[in-house]
Write a structure and sequence with these properties.
single chain, alpha/beta, 6-stranded parallel sheet
């Protein structure tokens, strides 16, 4: 029994000495998206937190009522606020989760050892110009007219712009998960929720102090139908990260290339000196 207790203490110490990854989903997703990556990380004794943003995952808020980015991103900001002053984390943001990372970088630069943008929207000031919209907003016109691609929610009334969007179930695999295992796209179809589009498309940032001290890396996804490779390249060029990695993946590498993604995240952590 004493040996078992000693073993538990050793494992706990090893885990505490490892980097702490905080994983942030994209629009409509949730902490569940990361289940493969979380398993790989925790089996290697990394600390992992999977955030559910407001109206996503297990959070019960109606996404049609979320009209500001500040409200939407509050769970991540609250989590970072709760950390000890001397604790730092590695943030990983997927897709629109990149906007959550930028917000966090500006508000808590001293609590972030590395920011990893994964097939993500990486705009320094948010949606300010037409160029920002062109580079950061998914263009799914190859798959049909807007109303044929998305199901929309009108929380403010049918005569006003939609408050939520979600890709129609019949198109989700074709657009988002075309290289992913069938069981994962089936899981996603069961768990995806409409995303608060007004909160996301209105976001603009004010740069804080010491924000450029936070190292950023970008992980490109070469077979991405959502944030297309040319959009990723354009954002990388405008706000260059310290490193760019490439994955042969669809828009959801946590499903389609989990082992490769895990390897890149560990490599990035080691390179940044936070392993």
């Amino acid at each position: 029994m004493g040996e078992e207790f000693a073993g538990e203490v050793v494992m706990k110490e090893k885990r505490l000495n490892k980097a702490h990854f905080v994983l942030v989903h994209g629009i409509g997703g949730g902490g569940w998206c990361w289940y493969k990556i979380r398993c790989l990380m925790e089996n290697t004794n990394y600390r992992v937190t999977c955030i559910d943003l407001k109206g996503a995952g297990v959070d019960q808020t109606d996404p049609n009522t979320i009209l500001s980015f500040e409200d939407y991103n509050k769970p991540l900001i609250d989590f970072l606020s709760s950390l000890d002053d001397n604790e730092k984390v590695i943030l990983v943001g997927h897709s629109a989760g990149g906007l959550s990372l930028t917000d966090a970088i500006y508000k808590f630069p001293n609590k972030i050892s590395l920011a990893v943008f994964l097939a993500a929207t990486m705009l320094k000031m948010g949606y300010v110009t037409d160029q920002d919209i062109k580079q950061g907003v998914p263009d799914l016109s190859d798959f049909g007219e807007f109303r044929d691609v998305y199901d929309m929610g009108f929380g403010l009334g049918q005569d006003l712009p939609p408050t939520t969007l979600i890709i129609k179930k019949g198109l989700q695999r074709k657009i988002v998960y075309q290289l992913s295992p069938q069981e994962d796209s089936t899981l996603a179809a069961m768990l995806l929720r409409p995303g608060p589009i007004q909160a996301l498309t209105r976001v603009q940032f004010k740069e804080g102090e010491n924000t450029e001290n936070v190292p950023r890396i970008y992980i490109k996804t070469t077979q991405d139908n959502v944030v297309k490779p040319e959009q990723q390249d354009a954002m990388i060029k405008r706000w260059p990260p310290s490193e760019v990695y490439v994955l042969e993946s669809d828009h959801s590498p946590f499903f389609s290339a989990p082992f490769s993604l895990f390897g890149l995240l560990v490599k990035a952590a080691i390179s940044a000196g936070c392993n």
